[in-house]
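Model it.
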Amino acid sequence: MNEKAIIQCENVTLAYGREVVLSGVSFDISDGAFLPFVGPNGAGKTTLLRAILGLVKPSRGVIKTPFDRQVAGYVPQNKAIDPIYPVPVRRIVAMGLYPGLGALRRPKAEGKKKVDSALEMFSLTEHADKTFDLLSGGMKQKVMLARAFASGAEVFVMDEPTSELDAGAEHAVLEHLHRLTRDQGKTVLFAHHGVNHITGWSTEVCLVERGKAQIVSASRVRDKASWIRNLTKHREKYHENDISY
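Modeled.
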């Protein structure tokens, strides 16, 4: 067991009814890790992240986390976010303060500074008074990221946080996430749709495929993805962007 581990999965099996999604998952995630979860669509990345959060109960095994002491900063997939009623962006970001504040209490000066900082971090200051329902998909995702950062959590769990962002915005978000680990010692776990965009940011990834999940070197996954790309390009069957790991 890694003494510096902040999250531990011990022989974990995840299933929906009789359908097993992942089995025999055992790994430690170090405190302060910047860990992308990569793998084919439908392989179980979201299920594994939700299990780490405690939203999915393992049918076998144990997942140990610090979330009984402090909740994680969670960003779900954009398609899972309900656009609902016309709530101002600032108020949604301020919701990140609620775990430590209480939903019925107004944030004090320190909390307002956290909200302002999160808005500025994602270039949302000028959009603070706009309502969430009127934003583009990419802007909505930035708002949810800002809400997670405003929480002051030690661990951030994000399900494809850059899925609807253009290349420039994606790079900026990854840089913000990486800075959290490098400068503040935060732990950042996130699912990502393509390995080429993240191997420069991390030496390790959690590879989820074929019912298994393991932490491996990013170079191993990058080399595998390159081989698959070359093969499919030769066959002229798939476009390079279809390779999702």
